[in-house]
Specification:
Distance between the termini: 33 Å
Number of helices: 4
Oligomer: single chain
CATH topology: Aspartate Aminotransferase, domain 1
Helix content: 40-55%
Order of helices and strands: HHEEEEHEEH
Low-confidence stretches: none
Structural class: alpha+beta
Number of domains: 1
CATH class: Alpha Beta
Shape: globular
Largest sheet: 6 strands, antiparallel
């Protein structure tokens, strides 16, 4: 359940609450994630769209002035130089709503997370 008390069943339901313009942006984001990590399954986790391989690779959520992209802390460190123009925190990147999403960069981050996740799963075995 999210902060508004709504529990979405899937990503389509999450996207449907937004304007057609925002839905198009979110669909682009979703497609780039699926292209970068086609083996992932879609889910809703913590009230946000999430993409899971062995563990959740990335989440995203629409906020008032930005789309929050949550790839965990390590990729934010690794891609620090490429992320310099975006506000970041330990595990989050803020992409301003009034700017075009950096889809090639998002794709690189998701591919990095997918590889990282596979390595962690192999180490566990």
């Amino acid at each position: 359940m999210n902060t508004s008390g709504i529990a979405w069943k899937n990503i389509d339901e999450y996207h449907a609450q937004f304007s057609k313009e925002m839905q198009a942006v979110l669909q682009q984001l979703r497609q780039v994630i699926k292209q970068a990590a086609p083996q992932t399954t879609e889910t809703i986790s913590y009230g946000m769209p999430a993409f899971k391989q062995n563990k959740v690779l990335v989440y995203y959520a629409v906020n008032k002035n930005h789309i929050g992209f949550y790839p965990t802390p390590h990729p934010i460190e690794v891609f620090k130089k490429e992320l310099h123009k975006y506000k970041t925190s330990k595990g989050a990147i803020q992409f301003p709503i009034d700017q075009v999403l950096p889809l090639p960069l998002i794709k690189k981050i998701v591919k990095f997370r997918a590889a990282e996740d596979i390595k962690a799963a192999i180490r566990k075995k």
